[in-house]
Amino acid sequence: MSDGMSSMPLGQQPLAIICGAGSLPFAVADAARRRGRGVVLFALRGWADPARAESYPHHWVRFGQLGRFCRIARQEGCRDVVFIGSVVRPSFWQIWPDLAAMRAMPRIIAMFRGGDDHLMSGIMKVFEDRGFHPIGAHEVAPEILMPEGAVGHYQPSESHHADIALGLALVRAIGRFDVGQATVVAGNHVLAVEAAEGTDEMLSRVAELRRKGRIRSSGGVLVKAPKPGQDRRIDLPTIGPQTIAGAARAGLAGIAVVSGEAIIAEPDSVAQAADRERIFIVGVRQVASHDD
What we know:
Layout: E1 15-19, H1 24-34, E2 39-44, H2 50-53, E3 58-61, H3 66-75, E4 80-84, H4 99-103, H5 105-111, H6 116-129, E5 133-135, H7 137-140, E6 149-151, H8 158-175, E7 182-186, E8 189-193, H9 199-211, E9 221-224, E10 238-239, H10 241-249, E11 254-258, E12 263-264, H11 267-277, E13 280-284
Parallel strand pairs: 1-2, 1-4, 2-3, 4-5, 9-11, 10-12, 11-13
Antiparallel strand pairs: 6-13, 7-8, 7-9
């Protein structure tokens, strides 16, 4: 092909996985392999786990090395691209632009003038314009999606369900402004809303407020849901063992995420940790509004 892409049909070519931190990139790689598909990892320096990346065909890249990625991905025969793993939104000065990124710099600058969804959608378009096909990690590995119902032995009470409903409504409302995907609700009272700090830091803030006596109510629920209109190919809400630890430190009774639209990392470890901390984990349906 004139663009250097493999002529193999989409879905049969090796899958390019751009890897952030955590275990999810490797879970997706393993799922693709189980389905008979080759994978090539593009591990982000400073985020991806070096020890685990060594077990797969891989290349190391930095933020901003657009030309390097495109060149190597074409050489490897990749066209489908998955973005997966934890990454803290970089500052503009943390980007290492190569020549291809320098040429796209006006677009990149514009991407940073907005929230995370604006940034991620812009990145998707940059890759699409270069002939790549970004897809969601859940399309490759549907087993990483949160199921409906409880994970572990503990169940939410009727009052917890009321808090969950409030949390879902709140995340839906603020999500329209490209603000975070999570909130903490206790007794029909909003304790915290996720912004740029991320879920783990929000939970740390709740724990600190409790320690200082600023929060007097007990329990509470962490609620996570995608933003309305969010590109589901990237940055779906995610929980993992670290989320359970943070919720326990914050004194929460449980965690609720939207089933089928959120990712659960290391589900066996999550269930064990939740049971150990006596915290419920539940996948709930997101009720569509007439505005979506």
